[in-house]
Amino acid sequence: MRKITSKKTGTKRKQVMVGVALVFVMLASTFGILTNSFGTETNSGRINYNGFEFFEQNGFWITQIEDRDFIFRKNPIEVGDVANNIEVDLEDYYNKPLYIDSEDVEVSSEIYNNLNVNGIVMRTQAGCFEEPCKENVPIKTCEDNLIVIHQEDYSSIVTENNCVFIKGPEEDLIKITDGFLFKLLGIE
Questions:
Q1: pLDDT for res 82
Q2: Tens of pLDDT along 46-75?
Q3: Does domain 78-184 have CATH number 3.30.379?
Q4: Is the distance from CB of 174 to CB of 59 less than 8 angstroms?
Q5: Residue ranges of domains in the chain
Q6: 27: which residues sit within 8 A by CB, 6+ positions away?
């Protein structure tokens, strides 16, 4: 009879030890996953550039300026110095309409999200710099705040009166546009 009791006690002891080991493994795994995910987000997804803290979230780079979130597809390090040769002043855009002449919706939305949503410009709408224009799109000149974005074989940003001309290969237009926005917002 003694052996039966010993087997039951031994089996129960093994079950308790296996249960404790499983709970420990589960807790350690959860802690490891949490620690690793936080470490990845804070280390590789953050940069400090000219005093501006950028963090990556869902493929976008976000920084705060005067309690406003500015969201970009590229960070300043990826952009480089594409906008170093231009002079732009954010004051020229405050509470004024901004017109954008671009076939690239992604690039237009980059400007809209940072200047219109953050309340810098009065409104953002499509504008046409040169004819032929799409139906119901007003023709604008460099007397208006106008950003003209077109695909070219070379990259450039040129300012003329109230116009900004952003040109480049399709795959670089976001990078060039972010460079312009960094310059305009005083990040670059």
A1: 84
A2: 999 999 999 999 999 999 999 999 999 999
A3: yes
A4: no
A5: 2-44, 78-184
A6: none
